[in-house]
Protein: DMT family transporter
Organism: Photobacterium toruni
Amino acid sequence: MSIFFVIFVVFAGMGLAFEAGILGPLGAQVGKLWATMSIVSVGTLVLWLVDFFTPQHKNYKWHDIPRWQLIGGVLGSFYVVILTLATPTIGVAMTMVCVLFGQITKSFAIDYFGWFGVTKKPINPQRIIGLIFISLALCFSYIGAIS
């Protein structure tokens, strides 16, 4: 496993915390759905520009892409709406712990069953212990937030 990717993903995760922190005030200022649309639209524009100015242009054939693979766009928008609604109420830290718990539990199932064409990965004691710690983080964060 490359330590570079681990570090890179940790920084990407930090970016999600920034996004959650930004979305609450933006949603209060322009409305929850407009905040979601602006975040998704700006991201789309940036990615389009990166794709346009990189030399390896690909000819996409949208009709050849299985439709189920495009659900990620819907899920991403749903995620941003939930961040916009939840963060002002439960805080950035609690929102991110909840996101992490959801991601880890679903990721275990995806790895174990090999869904979406990923290589199957067995569940071992170390991974179970990690899931227990994530569960404890959710519990302790919740208890800390309500006290």
In short: The CA atoms of residues 100 and 134 lie 8 Å apart. The first helix runs from residue 3 to 30. The chain has a mean pLDDT of 87. DSSP finds five helices and no strands in the chain.
